[in-house]
Recover the amino acids of this structure.
């Protein structure tokens, strides 16, 4: 009878430990999803600002239509992306086209002096800072989650319960190089 009690106590402890482990993995997965949602909010904010910026630039630099079209296409790609990975890739492309757009604006002093352009540029810079911070936070959260599902004893249960490794937000290849603008 005593052996049965000990076995029962061990089973209860193991079941409680498994429940706690599962709940922790769910919490961490939800934290990753929330961190992505925060990035998505900032990406949407940036996409909402871009049409105003493009219209402002059009008035001063109408012959730069190629650059403006690239910005519009990149914005559309971010808006239409359906997965976090696709959105990350599209966002990297959009960041590059925005850099080109701001580089083009350097050739138009009257555009640079326009209060509306300055305000939009400031709002976009602020949003870019927020996106950068959110990316860092997302990557930290993904690292903690991936570590949690890959370490013992969670690794024994993670695959069984559908917890899969997540991708972090990586910079686009060549992102460290400034865009080239020719006039």
């Amino acid at each position: 009878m005593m052996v049965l009690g000990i076995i029962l106590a061990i089973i209860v402890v193991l079941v409680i430990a498994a429940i706690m482990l599962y709940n922790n993995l769910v919490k961490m997965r939800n934290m990753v999803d929330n961190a992505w949602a925060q990035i998505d909010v900032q990406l949407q904010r940036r996409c909402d600002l871009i049409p105003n910026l493009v219209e402002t630039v059009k008035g001063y630099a109408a012959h730069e239509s190629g650059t403006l079209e690239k910005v519009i296409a990149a914005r559309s790609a971010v808006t239409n992306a359906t997965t976090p990975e696709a959105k990350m890739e599209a966002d990297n492309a959009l960041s590059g086209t925005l850099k080109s757009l701001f580089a083009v604006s350097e050739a138009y002093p009257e555009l640079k002096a326009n209060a509306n352009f300055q305000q939009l540029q400031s709002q976009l810079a602020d949003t870019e800072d927020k996106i950068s911070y959110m990316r860092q936070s997302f990557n930290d959260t993904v690292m903690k989650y991936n570590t949690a599902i890959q370490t013992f004893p969670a690794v024994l249960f993670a695959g069984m319960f559908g917890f899969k490794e997540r991708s972090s937000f990586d910079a686009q290849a060549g992102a460290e190089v400034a865009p080239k603008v020719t006039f």
Summary: Helices lie at 2-60, 65-80, 84-105, 109-113, 115-150, 154-158. The CA atoms of residues 5 and 133 lie 53 Å apart. DSSP finds six helices and no strands in the chain.
